[in-house]
User: Fold this.
Amino acid sequence: MDHRKTLRMTDRAAPLPPPTLRLVVDTGALAANWRALDALSGGARAGAAVKADAYGLGVEACVPALRDAGCRDFFVAHWSEVAAVTRHVPAEQVAVLHGVLSEADCAYARATGAVPVINSLDQARLWTATGAGRCHLMVDTGINRLGIGLAEAGDPAIAALDIDILMSHLASADERTAMNRMQAELLAEAGEAIAHRRRSLANSAGIALGESFAFDVTRPGLALYGGVPRAELAEHIRPVARIEAQLLQIRQIAPGEGVGYNSAFIASTHMRVGTVSIGYADGFLRQRGPGNALRHDGRALPILGKVSMDMVVVDLAAAPDAAAGDWLDVPWSIADAAQQNALSAYELLTTIGPRLRAR
Ligand SMILES: *Cc1c(COP(=O)(O)O)cnc(C)c1O
Assistant:
């Protein structure tokens, strides 16, 4: 590679101008949410699910804030997610939920110091055969995704493991169902049969079920980032993410004129409308158009017509002072937005966050 050439090109390049669309992450609110969930966990300590790049809000901003708040157990899904997290916290505090599927996974685990969550007898044997060491163990108590069955608890492959956290995952923590209690009892039963240091069951919604679901370590994800999976959590959780989009242009339209593709909105009167820098390429899906509004200083600006790839058009009647360049709030009470979107808060966060941060 010709480094001189690269350098010259960099020298010539102008700095990237500021974006017209931004995701603002309130790390103070994130830390407050962790502390609230930690307190709600009673005698247990809250960890943090930081998989999917901290649910789309960015490991870079979120993990240091969680660490400084006191979090010591971080959960990711993939080995590829480890390095970004261990830039901020010791590797032994990072657990990888998908576990070890190959010798390469085991080698990577040992090289980085991140800790696999063993999910099957095969994974247990592989981890032991490649050198053993501290691990976590997932027990399936009814969700039927990952984890050993209770019937496998007595297997020598499990006895051979050095297990720190013995964990399970609730299938319906966001519902009132007898299954929750049953899963907690099955984890307790597994704890009798399997040597371990700590136990863990509750995700965000599970924490709201009460202290008897908290065991030793809880694993909130969504609620840290401002999602409210159960009504009991609403008073404890602060919004963390804000989306702001810039007003690109303002125009006057006359009665009979249409707005956007297929003129899906047609003016019945003279209107002042504004074109805004957010669209479905940013995760602001088409279904968010009709009946939804952006805000200017708290005033609602209804969306007119179809959401385009990079733009929406809003009615400026409520904000006669709005000018091109102004920032509009994209309402993002996660719960509301998810409802309007027919998306879960989980899907909303993890799809919209990364795109905004890339702008
Ligand atoms: C994602 C995940 C969590 C976090 O769940 P939330 O519902 O976001 O709080 C906890 N535990 C496991 C095993 C997970 O996969």
